[in-house]
Design a protein that fits this description.
The complex is a heterotrimer of chains A (about 325), B (about 350) and C (about 350). Chain A is an all-alpha fold. Chain A contains ten helices and two strands, in the order H-H-E-E-H-H-H-H-H-H-H-H. Chain B has two domains: about 210 residues, Rossmann fold; about 110 residues, no CATH class. In chain B, about 35% of the residues lie in helices and about 20% in strands. Chain B has an eight-stranded mixed sheet, sandwiched between helices. In chain B, a hairpin with a 2-residue loop joins strand 1 and strand 2.
Chain lengths: ~325, ~350, ~350
């Protein structure tokens, strides 16, 4: 058999395997409509994050028009009696914020920012967790003990407090705030990966690999970690929602680098001072955070069902 | 076995499918079984043959994705498959008891053995109601236990309303007696222990005790010795044989090991891929196996008394029940397969002496 | 002896039991507690025993998969217990193992082909990818599988097929010696027959030496040339297969043989049942380990060392029992003292 034929056979079988996995995933989706809804929403938000600038020009974040600040279009319904009405002719379905910018446009611009920060934080936390956690789990001993204690210390602090302290100490740029939230999340991944490695370490196939003379680093990298990846993926998708919440909360509490930054928490923060005069300013950004977090949570749950080998078939 | 005793339990045309994402698993296909009083019927077969599924169907414990397409399970004149889950629970509490393979997962690990055993007594409504004259104490073993239970029965008849505490005490006494019945030494101590504090053999005896506590007419034992060491297995099998003689209950013994069936069972039903292929008394089955699968299976087993240099095996492998072979499900592996075997399902043939085969050869 | 490929000397593998907040060692599980044995090249040595006997731990200690606590194991003259990590790696090529659970011994995310090629590459037995694939294909055919199975994942196979893959993997490094740890206990009877025959065939073709561990006495009898019975971490009897099965001399061996179910309902079995349960290797009784359950034990059995006495079944037969018991009558006499 030629090399090409061998390679193409592999691809064919792999494709068959992947198709079988997909069929199972679809079957589970049909069983659980909420997960399906969550997945569609996530796809929608991801799409929006990638194409936001096509719909809304980034300049609209800096085009301030104080003549129409905190106004509501008034066409469909009215929130309170105290609200201002926007000048006619302008397309402002969700009202405006304090700078006169369309709340809808600001939300659309905020989504890529929030999502990309969330993805960055989760990715770095995962990478770090895999690196440190796998060593701790496999080697054990003093390194493992040290890691357990360190992560314990981090867990002892309520997440938000930790982030706040860091932000307060190191200033308020997007970078420092990202690091602040990262500090809250990394220990979870170290523990998670460590736990998985501990479990896999005892399994027979690992013993078989040792019996074949395979070196431990290779066993961990090419066998243990790929087999541990499922719970990590689940955790990652669940955390996207959580990270967005934490990050927005920081902004909401006033740690934003700039008051005009189009970020969901920041927008809501502006709204808190105007609850009775412009309630849409807190409702819509807040709802967006809620829906994104919910969507990722549902997807995470669904992924857990699909990927957990114990619940399979 | 010319005289047909009244059948205790019968399954007729039992057909069960399982819904899975890959398709419908046709697990049971017109399974026909009869269980007579005072006997041990062994249900023997390899993995996927449907013996456990049959047991679960009789017990009403099938998982959600199972569909009973047709068939009946007749017990005491009623079709168990038509019962509600409450009615089935009552049947399981007092008519048909089950013992499973792994006592560690079957027993609640956080409750003491005594609590669980007493519960088996406390749930039996008929024990506590003064009206019902429960099954007479002849269902117990030793004469002493029999006498004791008779005593208790009359006591109970006297007082209509037992207080909770009195019931507990009576249940405790009954528990100790039943532990003696399964030959566990020091029942008092065992009652106060947790399942993990006991050894595998002792746990299995506790399970048997819990099953017997219900004074069942039928005991379904699913691979109860598979997880046990061979010396302990020998003890449990001997116990089962003893109990068959002293207790008025029949057993369905499910096992993949024909040697165990040879030792313990009165009759054997051989199953393959969801079908019953042959039923006969134990001696008859080993002397004259008719079905090709039975014959081949017997040749596969290494016999300690006759060491051989080469074991026969059955070519091929157990079929995928999502797409089982047409006609007789064994035909792809059968050395005697004929044209008709690939198209039509074989019909039951009665060879005489209670020996029945599902095969076109006869 | 010169043609012994494996020599085990007083091997002990103890596992510490830790308790308390400070995790102090309060005792040991003496899984293997002093075993001596020799295995000749090309033969199959069967190791039987129940749970707690230490047979699996012994098998893994010989391979140094579990680190022995003391004692030595010599493979082809090389002291396995004392070699360096690098030398161990080379030994791993020559000494392999097949595990009990075919559903757990293969990496679920690796294709069969990759599973077979990895050890070949590691031990530098092949140099190009095509050579590796070719060899992998040959291995699969040798164990009765097909070329197309190279590209499938373990979960697509049945238990029997997975065991065959495990055998192919062990053969991939061209070993001389294989420990078979209950290789068929998870398999159906008909599949078991196929796998056992395959193992026998391969042994002849490739001149392999096996240590066959099992609690299934019928299977051990079918596979082995010599058999050793283990109880609570020690060998209590070891002899040529026919000798042990027909004329066991240690009471435990006798009860073990008597407990085997026989596929013949008309066979009148002598009702010889062992009382009590299989003990755990944490609290080992003094003297002969079997004495608490032995119906023939005397005071002599309850203290002191237990040496190996020669048995009546030839020069290879040895028994760890002070008495020569006639099991039919229950009488016995003291064996002559050995040094």
């Amino acid at each position: 058999m030629t090399e090409q034929a061998v390679v193409s056979d592999t691809r064919e079988s792999e494709t068959k395997a992947r198709i079988a996995e997909l069929k199972y995933a679809i079957y589970l989706m049909r069983q659980n409509p909420l997960v399906l809804a969550g997945s569609l929403l996530v796809i929608f938000f991801l799409f929006l994050a990638l194409t936001a600038t096509l719909f809304v020009s980034p300049d609209s974040a800096v085009q301030l028009d104080f003549s129409r600040s905190y106004c509501w279009s008034g066409s469909s319904f009215s929130w309170t009696s105290l609200e201002a009405v926007c000048p006619t002719g302008s397309f402002l379905p969700l009202g405006t914020d304090g700078y006169g910018r369309s709340v809808l446009s600001m939300i659309v611009l905020a989504i890529p920012l929030d999502l990309s920060i969330a993805f960055i934080i989760v990715s770095i936390a995962t990478a770090f967790g895999v690196l440190v956690g796998s060593v701790a789990g496999w080697v054990g001993g003093k390194f493992d003990e040290a890691m357990l204690r360190i992560t314990d210390i981090f867990f002892a602090f309520p997440g938000l407090v930790l982030a706040l302290v860091f932000a307060a100490l190191f200033g308020r740029t997007i970078e420092t705030l990202t690091i602040a939230v990262l500090l809250v999340w990394w220990p979870t991944y170290v523990r998670l990966v460590r736990g998985q490695v501990l479990v896999e370490k005892e399994k027979t196939y690992v013993e078989a690999l040792r019996a074949l003379g395979v070196h431990p680093p290779r066993i961990v990298l090419f066998h243990v970690i790929p087999n541990s990846i499922y719970p990590i993926i689940v955790q990652m998708s669940l955390d996207i929602g959580g990270v967005i919440l934490t990050f927005s909360a920081l902004m909401f509490l006033g740690f934003s680098p700039s008051p005009a930054l189009p970020e969901l928490g920041n927008l809501a923060s502006d709204g808190i001072g105007h609850v009775f005069t412009a309630p849409w300013l807190i409702v819509f950004p807040g709802l967006t955070i809620l829906v994104i977090a919910l969507a990722f949570n549902l997807v995470g749950d669904g992924l857990r069902d699909i990927l957990d080998p114990r619940l399979r078939r | 076995m010319e005289v047909k005793d009244e059948v205790l339990l019968e399954t007729r045309d039992l057909t069960v499918n399982f819904h899975t994402y890959r398709g419908e698993v046709k697990a049971l296909d017109h399974v026909q079984l009869q269980l007579y009083p005072h006997e041990v019927l062994a249900l023997v077969g390899e993995s996927g043959c449907g013996k456990s599924v049959t047991a679960l169907t009789i017990l009403g414990l099938l998982p959600q994705n199972a569909h009973i397409l047709e068939g009946q399970v007749i017990f005491k004149g009623q079709d168990l498959l038509k019962m509600t889950s409450e009615q089935m629970r009552d049947v399981r509490a007092e008519g048909i008891a089950a013992i499973f393979q792994d006592p560690m997962t079957f027993l609640n690990p956080v409750l003491k053995v005594g609590v669980q055993l007493k519960e088996a007594f406390l749930v039996q409504k008929h024990l506590w109601s003064a009206e019902t004259r429960s099954k007479s104490a002849t269902t117990a073993g030793d004469a002493e236990i029999r006498g004791f239970l008779l005593e208790k029965e009359s006591e109970k008849e006297a007082s209509r309303h037992e207080s909770g505490r009195e019931r507990e005490k009576i249940a405790e006494e009954l528990s100790k007696d039943i532990l003696k019945l399964v030959r566990l030494p020091d029942p008092e101590r065992i009652l106060s222990q947790f399942p993990h504090e006991l050894s595998g053999g002792m746990r299995q005896r506790c399970m048997i005790a819990m099953a017997l506590a219900r004074r069942p007419s039928i005991i379904v034992a699913d691979e109860i010795t598979t997880a046990l060491d061979v010396t302990v297995q020998a003890q449990i099998l001997t116990l089962l044989k003893e109990l068959r003689d002293t207790i008025d209950a029949s057993s369905i013994l499910i096992t993949h090991d024909l040697s165990i069936a040879a030792e313990t069972a009165d009759r054997i039903a051989v199953m393959y891929a969801g079908h019953v292929v042959e039923v006969a008394t134990t001696i008859e089955l080993f002397r004259n196996p008719y079905h090709p699968y039975t014959q081949l299976l017997l040749k596969c087993i290494p016999d300690v008394r006759n060491p051989v240099t080469h074991l026969e095996s059955i070519s091929g492998s157990v079929p995928d029940l999502i797409d089982p072979p047409t006609g007789c499900r064994f035909h792809p592996r059968c050395p005697f397969a004929m044209e008709v075997c690939t198209t039509t399902k074989p019909v039951l043939k009665d060879i005489g002496n209670g020996h029945m085969v599902h095969c076109h050869l006869y | 002896m010169p043609d012994d490929i494996l020599v085990v000397k007083d091997l002990k593998t103890w596992f510490p039991i830790k308790a308390g907040i400070l995790q102090k060692t309060v005792g040991h599980v003496r899984a293997v507690d002093g075993v001596d044995l020799e295995v000749k090249k090309g033969e199959t040595f069967g190791l039987v025993g129940e749970s707690g006997s230490g047979k699996t731990t012994l098998g893994k200690s010989i391979l140094r998969l579990i680190k022995p606590t003391s004692g030595e194991a010599f493979f082809d003259g090389i002291n396995v217990t004392k070699v360096t990590k690098k030398e161990l790696m080379q030994l791993r090529r020559r000494m392999q193992i097949i595990f009990q659970d075919p559903y757990a011994s293969l990496d679920p995310r690796q294709t069969v082909g990759s599973t077979l090629v990895e050890p070949m590459r590691l031990h530098k037995l092949v140099s190009t990818k095509s050579e590796a694939m070719r060899r992998a294909k040959e291995l699969l055919l040798r164990v009765g599988l097909n070329e197309e199975h190279l590209f499938r994942f373990p979960h697509e196979f049945s238990g029997g097929q997975r065991q065959r893959i495990a055998v192919a993997r062990a053969l991939a490094v061209d070993p001389d010696f294989i420990v078979l740890d209950e290789p068929t206990s998870f398999l159906d009877v008909s599949v078991q027959a196929q796998v056992l025959d395959l193992l026998k065939k391969l042994q002849k073709e490739l001149d392999l030496t096996y240590v066959f561990i099992s609690h299934n006495l019928s299977v051990v009898q079918y596979m082995s040339d010599r058999v050793g019975v283990m109880y609570l971490g020690k060998l209590v009897e070891d002899a040529e297969r026919n000798v042990l099965y027909k004329y066991p001399e240690h009471p435990y061996s006798y009860f073990l043989m008597a407990a085997i179910p026989v596929p013949d309902p008309e066979f009148k079995k002598v009702p010889k049942l062992l009382t009590g349960d299989v003990p755990s290797p944490v609290n080992i009784p003094p003297g002969c380990r079997f004495n608490p359950r032995c119906p023939y034990s005397t005071d002599k059995c309850r203290s002191g060392d237990m040496p190996f006495y020669p048995g009546s079944g030839g020069s290879l037969h040895r028994v760890a029992c002070h008495y020569n018991v006639d099991f039919e009558t229950g009488t016995g006499f003291l064996r002559p003292q050995v040094n």
